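Support reply, case 0932

Customer input (verbatim):
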Amino acid sequence: MLSFEILPKKNIDIDAWRFVKDQVMGGKSDGSMALKESTNENFDFISAQGNVSTDGGGFLMFRKEIDANNLSDFSRVKFKARGNNEKYFIHIKTKGSIFPWVRYLGEFEVTNEWQDFEIEFTEFIRYSNKSPKKRNLNPSKIKLIGVEASGRDFDMDIDIASMSFSK
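Our regenerated output:
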């Protein structure tokens, strides 16, 4: 099966990932991320915790720029996740997207046990200033992927492992 690795099982380059808070726009959400190693299984993962506050903003996210010429052969994002029984989003930005609030979101909900997820590109919804629009995500234009906690007041507590694009 054809795949494009975003987050490897081992030897994750944590410096390629950036934690972003809504404080860049005057919000009050706060949090952090760290690289961790599974004690029971043979993989590394990114762990992110924080508090999402809708007072002046309402998001926390960690993200990575994608260095690929063309991802048009891919149709989904696959990853492993666990957390605090909350809803999160895979956040994708595309080339040509000038404004930071324009992004594609794919929703998923975690439990406290590791689960494998697959979100088809056709399931992603384009958001612009909180307004959802059904517009197809063009994989050949993907430039950034992340995990976003947003839209309501809650505690972010999520672990993500082995992320990739696949056919």
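We compared this against your earlier run and they match. Two observations from our side: Residues 3-166 form a domain with the Jelly Rolls fold (CATH 2.60.120.430). The CA atoms of residues 20 and 61 lie 5 Å apart. Please reopen the case if you see a mismatch on your end.
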